[in-house]
Amino acid sequence: MQSSAVQTFIIGKITGLSQRTNAKISIEKVDITFFDRIILKNVLIAEANSDTILFTELLTARIDTLKFRKHKLTLSELSFFKNQISVKRDSLNEYNFGFILESLRPDQKDTSSSIQWKINCNQFNFQKSEVAFSNQTSENVQHYFVHQMNLNVSDLSNYADSVAFKINDLRLNYNNQVFINQLSANVIITKSMIALKSMNLKSNKSEINNLSLLMNAVENGEMFSRDMNFELQLSNSYVNLSELGQFIPGFYEIDEYFELEGRIYGTLNDLKGKELIFKTGESTVINFDFYANGIEDLETMYLFLDLKKLETTINDIKRFSIIKNGKKININIPDAFYNSGLLSYKGNFSGFLSDFVTYGTLQSRMGIIKTDVSVVPKK
Length: 379
Description:
By secondary structure, the protein is mostly beta strands. The chain is 9% helix and 59% strand.
C-alpha cells in the first residue's frame, strides 16, 4: 500500500464529504505509519457559520483492508483523542448536526463521485472527550456538560438504514455531579427506532442491571419528542435519589436508595407501569401498577395507582428524608405507633391530585382499617 495513494484517497473523501454536507472540514496534518496506520491531527468539523461541531486533536485509523478496485475499506480500529463536541438544539427542535445527517441519507446522490465506497469499522474509541449540549427549545436556554467521556465501541455493522453496535465501556461525569463509572449495552438504530438491550450501568451511587429500552419514532419520523412511544424494562437495579436530583430537582437532597424492577411503557403523555417493585429501608416493599395521563401538568394529570402490596414499618417511615425548600422535615409519630409492627396496605388511588378517590385495607398488630375516601377541592 503506497502512502501517496492513501493520502490522495483521504483528501478526496474529505473534499467530497465537505461538498456533500456543506460542512466546514479541515485537517492540519495527515501521516501514514507502518503502512497500515493513518494519523490525522487537529480535525475540525464545523457549521457553515464556523461554529464547532467536532474538534479532535488526534484521530488514528488502523487499516485492515483497502481495495481500490472493489472500493472497499475496512478499519480494524478508529480512535479519537482529546475531543470537543458541541451539540445544539434550536427553537425549531433541530440539531446543529442535522444538516450533515440529512445530506448523508441513502436517497441523496454523492455529487463528488459516482462511485460508492463500502466502509466498515470493527472498533472505535473516543478518549478524553468534552461534550457541551445547549437546548434552546424553551424560553430559558439550558446548558449541560459532560466531562472526561471515554467510549469504546465494537461489532459495528450497518445494512440499509440500520446500524448495530456494542458499547463495551462508557465512562463520564455529568455536570461534575453524576459519575458514570461503567456502562455497556447492545444498540440498534434505524430511521424509526432505537433499541438498547442488556444495558448495565454503574455510577458512584447507583447500579442499573439488564435494562432494555425500545424507542419508536412518531409518524413524522421524529425521535425524542413527547409523543414518542417507548418501553423500558428494569431488573433488580439500585438507584440513589440524590443522583436523580440532577434531572428531578426535588430529589437532589434526598440521599436514599431504592431497589427497583418492572416495566414502564407508553408516551410521556400516556404512561403505564406494570409489575413495578420498589424496595427501600429495612422492610419497605411496594408492588404496583399505574396509569398516568397528562404528566406535563401535575395539577391536571390523571393518575390510577393499583397498590398490590405495600409493606413498611414506622421506623422506615421515620428515617425517610423529606426535603422542602432546602430543609429537612421531621416526621413526628406518636410513640404508641411504634408497637404496630409491620404495616401492610392494599388498595388503589384514582383521579387527580386535588380531586381523587382512594380505597383499600391497612393491617398491623393494632388491627385493620378499611378506607373509602373521596377528596374534592373546595369551590
